[in-house]
Amino acid sequence: MLAVHQRMAELWTLRRARELTRAEQDELLLCMEANATYVWNRLKLENLSLCASLTGDYDWLHEICERIEKLEPKH
């Protein structure tokens, strides 16, 4: 889970109990934008990895897998 996902969940939970402040609303929108960017980048790379696998281009597949790993948070 990315830090943005945790903050988005916190803001969503606050929103259920009370109205968010303007700053919190702006932050929630930023979190949602960051999430959408992350998801689309991840999906693109997963589709590219499928293409690389289907064409047997294992060097390209390795490169794509490295890019996917870089998207994930470090533990």
Description:
The chain is mainly alpha-helical and 75 residues long. It contains three helices and no strands. The chain has helices spanning 3-17, 22-55, 58-71. Helix 2 (22-55) runs antiparallel to helix 3. The longest helix has 34 residues, at 22-55. It starts with a helix and ends with a helix. Pfam families: DUF7667. InterPro entries: DUF7667.
List keywords for this structure.
single chain; 75 residues; mainly alpha
Give a brief rundown of this model.
This protein has three helices and no strands. It has 75 residues and is mainly α.
Q: Helices and strands in order, then pairings?
A:
Layout (H helix, E strand, L loop, with lengths): L2 H15 L4 H34 L2 H14 L4
Instruction: Work out the oligomeric state of the chains in this entry.
Output: single chain
Low-confidence stretches: none
Strand content: under 5%
Indicate the overall shape. elongated
User: What is the helix fraction of residues, given as a range?
Assistant: over 70%
Radius of gyration: 17 Å
- The helix count comes to 3
Distance between the termini: 10 Å
How many beta strands in the DSSP annotation? 0
Q: Round the mean pLDDT to the nearest integer and report it.
A: 96
Task: Characterize the main sheet.
Answer: none
Structural class: mainly alpha
Tell me the series of helices and strands, N- to C-terminal.
Answer: HHH
InterPro entries: DUF7667
